[in-house]
Amino acid sequence: MAFLTVGRRPRTAAFCIAFALILLLGTSNGWVSRYLVRSLEWQNTPSQLPNAEAIVVLGGATRSALLPRPTVDLQESGDRVIYAAQLYRQKKAPLLILSGGRIEWFGKGTPESEDMATILTSIGIPKEALIQEPDSLNTYQNAVNVRKILEQRNIKRVLLVTSAIHMPRSLLIFQKQNIDVIAAPTDFLVSTGELGELTSTPKAAILNLLPDTSYIDQFTSALKEYIGIVIYRLRGWL
Q1: Rounded to an integer, what distance in angstroms lies between the CA atom of residue 144 and that of residue 135?
Q2: Residue 101 phi, psi dihedral angles, 5° rounding
Q3: Per its UniProt record, what InterPro entries does this chain match (predicted)?
Q4: How far lies 99's CA from each of 30, 68, 93, 170, 215, in Å?
């Protein structure tokens, strides 16, 4: 826009350039991105989790075993699969419900529920403890399809495992389905350590004002969640 108007409308061009720079600096510095992420992640901070009848693990954490991968890979959000295994070994629940399909245009491969099962069995979780739900393509479908499984098995209370930034929206959706759900978030992007780093030294405070692509990624993830909350609310899903 700025380049198209720089010759004919220099003031408009200058405004567009200034706005773009402000937007870049605002979304790519550690102060803004970390506090925006924290506003979501810290809504459900970990505590002593009670026992439940099942652990629900949401998809979005794996890459299928397509060449040249030798097996299923875990993404950044793969912490949720490991955390679910830890909860199972702590005897928090006797069953793991793995919910997630595979969107065709977003990376081909097997359903995420199957990929998660592959990872879990490879680290010693028995197959008998796993229930796969391979049809969900979004969080709303996760909740609807999991509710059907819970009703079939007369399961009343579940622990919900997903990334902390995704937990507020997920929790609202599952509660909308009248599921007795307890948040068990993991994969925290912002901890007290990251926040402390912002003010640890004057140099750190200044450096965290500089643009960084990792901060843009965090900002974008948080913004998508807030937009998702608005859209899901408008659709009556939460």
Answers
A1: 11
A2: -95, -155
A3: Cell_Envelope_Assoc (IPR051599), DUF218 (IPR003848), Rossmann-like_a/b/a_fold (IPR014729)
A4: 33, 26, 16, 12, 29
> Domain residue spans in the chain?
43-183
What average pLDDT does the structure give for the chain?
91
Q: Note the pLDDT tens digit of each residue in 90-136.
A: 999 999 999 999 877 666 789 999 999 999 999 999 999 999 999 99
Measured over all CA atoms, what is the biggest interatomic distance in the chain, rounded to whole angstroms? Answer: 70
Please give the structure tokens belonging to residue 35.
């506090």
User: Is the domain defined by 43-183 classed in CATH 3.40.50.620?
Assistant: yes
- Taking each helix axis as running N to C, give the angle between helix 10-27 and helix 30-41, from 0 to 180 degrees, rounded to the nearest 10: 50
Give the whole-angstrom CA distance, residue 10 versus residue 158.
60
Q: How far apart are CA 235 and CA 175, in angstroms?
A: 15
